[in-house]
Amino acid sequence: MKLVVLQPSYLPWLGFFDQYDWSDVFVLYDDVQYDKNGWRNRNRILTANGPAWLTVPVRLTGQDFPPILEVAIDPSKDWRRKHRISLEQAYAKAPFFSTVYPALARVLEQDWEFLIDLDLAMLRALVDLLGMPWKVQRSSELGVPGQKTARLIGLCQKLGASDYLTGDAARSYLDESAFQDLGVKVHWHGYVHPEYRQRGPDFVPYLSVVDLLFHHGPESRAILRRTHTGASQEPKPLHTLEVD
To answer: Where exactly are the structural domains of the chain?
Structure first.
């Protein structure tokens, strides 16, 4: 059984779904500490003026960030309408707008209290649009204690994993020998971002997967599968506009 353990993201990028596609079980790591200015509550789309952030406003108090599943959305901001309008303006003329947008709009029309519930609902919508099966489990519901490598080892044992896929960011702490002792093969995620038909003359990588879906619809899964090798990590965005 092939296992991936990954923190939730809002409107994730292609590499996120490449890992999802590889896995037999995809554990959403929802009970680790929330990272401000990360990917849990934001991602980028491509507008006529270049890449732009879609950010979900959250409420954080005190010095210590809570676990991801406890992060509440700020209800004082009208972000849902702004995100719908931004998607409409950016992709209304894209070939598969009429197929993709309604599924996203249905999620954005709902009133969400916690970020994790929004991220889960959006992930399910995107998985359906990509034609992938639903195979998500939440780490908070699995009852596996520990930190870093010990926690990941525990998840592998709990779920009966034979193979575990991880990103380059884990090289600083992951004890690969501990997985080997358990009989689990560690794979380092290498994802070379494919190019595809997109608005504008110059291709812009590392956007939300919605950019691919709006332009290629049912071909999107095959396109994100084109490349599976090379160094990969969470993308480092270019300068972008902010839409929240």
So the answer is: 2-243
CB burial of residue 166 (10 Å; 0-12, 13-18, 19+): buried
Per-position pLDDT tens, the chain of length 244: 999 999 999 999 999 999 999 999 999 999 999 998 899 999 999 999 999 999 999 998 765 789 999 999 999 999 999 999 999 999 999 999 999 999 999 999 999 999 999 999 999 999 999 999 999 999 999 999 988 889 999 999 999 999 999 987 777 788 899 999 999 999 998 788 999 999 888 999 999 999 999 999 999 999 998 875 433 344 444 344 444 4
CB distance 55 to 244 below 8 Å: yes
Kindly state the tokens that stand for 146: 């520990």
